[in-house]
């Protein structure tokens, strides 16, 4: 199983602390520095100086680099295999990654197009071929690295470390989900919508954490997160979001706490979990989400490995 598989190895719990602690301290420092500062205004000033695409690189690049740091640490400092960091299966299931990516990418595209055709007054055509295709290349490279960094940090490195330290599944689910949400507290969306949007960020953390624990691997979360950020960035931008890009459409509407915050967490995400549970035959929800770690002599590393 995803966390249990490491109980048979002699990993130092202390080796799980430096990267999460360093990131939390950096996150706290950034929050203090941004307190009282209009983050969106800073982004707009940066865009006016170096342009949209370079601003995107400046914002996303450090997180993309963070992926390399986490993978290097796990592989060469902890001595843990990248396979065991990613999944409990005998090998990484790329079909799961692509299924999750294309499922959520298709749903996201459909929702944006429906809004565009039903509420055309809220959108403008933002497509500028030269700038868009440069951004497309940058996004295809950097966004999956950025989202994978967040998944490998929270749902892999931290979840496994906290799970081993507490012999629990529920504690790492709660801690990593809350920290994942708090990571976004300095985003300009918070200033625009208010702290109610933390329900969305923390709720997304719980959704990705539940997905990881139930599926005994990170693959579905990797695919979903990459699709969420990449497809969204390519299709739609707004002047009040963290990702202000050379996308195809621009949203002129005012965000609402109901549709933009509550609907995904309490309607869409539960439906997605239901779909995944049927496709991959998830069972024993209570034990997998709240139970203690159970270690047997032979851990079935291909449990729930249903194929599409």
UniProtKB/TrEMBL annotation:
Name of this chain's protein: CAAX prenyl protease 2/Lysostaphin resistance protein A-like domain-containing protein
GO terms under biological process: CAAX-box protein maturation
Keywords for the protein's UniProt record, in alphabetical order: Membrane, Transmembrane, Transmembrane helix
KW Lipid metabolism (keyword) present: no
InterPro entries the record matches: Rce1/LyrA-like_dom (IPR003675)
Gene Ontology MF terms in the entry: endopeptidase activity
The organism of origin for this protein: Flavobacterium cheniae
Domain CAAX prenyl protease 2/Lysostaphin resistance protein A-like: 132-231
Entry coiled-coil feature ranges: none
Bilayer-crossing regions: 12-32, 52-76, 97-117, 132-149, 170-187, 193-213, 220-241, 261-280
